[in-house]
Every structure is written in structure tokens, then in C-alpha cells.
Amino acid sequence: MAEIQGKTLRDVQVGESATVRRLSGEGALKRHIMDMGITKGVGVYVRKVAPLGDPIEVTVRGYELSLRKSEAECILVD
């Protein structure tokens, strides 16, 4: 996978919101992220992060979701 440039969802602190700028990744991983409703321009609120950073619990479009670190690293945010 290519080096990701910029701030990812994994860098967002608990209690902060961010707007999705772009999705990186390919194939099934990208499709899985999009199936959860995470697309360009969507606001994401980080609710909780497990002590070791996996999973990351977020709220997207009113739904509470859990993401793996690898998924969060593929979501570039502003």
C-alpha cells in the first residue's frame, strides 16, 4: 500500500470531529469502509479509543461504528 500523506482518522483525538477528505486503500478494504457509510464529505465524531488503539469507536451519520486501526489509517480527514 502507498504511503498516506496527511492526517488520518487515527490521528483524531477522542471527543473531536473531522470531515472525511478522501479514502485510500483498495478493493475489499475500501468497499468495507464505504459500506459503513464513510464517504468523502461525511462528518465523523470519535467517541472512544481502546487502550491499545484498536478498535476506534466513531459516530457517522447517527450510527455508532467500530473501526480497526488499519481501516482508520485509510481515511484521510480535515
UniProtKB/TrEMBL annotation:
Matching Gene3D superfamilies: 2.30.30.90
Q: A Gene Ontology MF term for this entry?
A: transition metal ion binding
Keywords of the record, alphabetical order, are: Iron
Q: Which residues form the Ferrous iron transporter FeoA-like domain?
A: 7-78
The record's section on Pfam families has: FeoA
The organism's place on the tree of life at top rank: Bacteria
- What PANTHER family does its record include? FE(2+) TRANSPORT PROTEIN A
Question: What protein name is recorded for this chain?
Answer: Ferrous iron transport protein A
Instruction: Supply the source organism for this entry.
Output: Senegalimassilia anaerobia
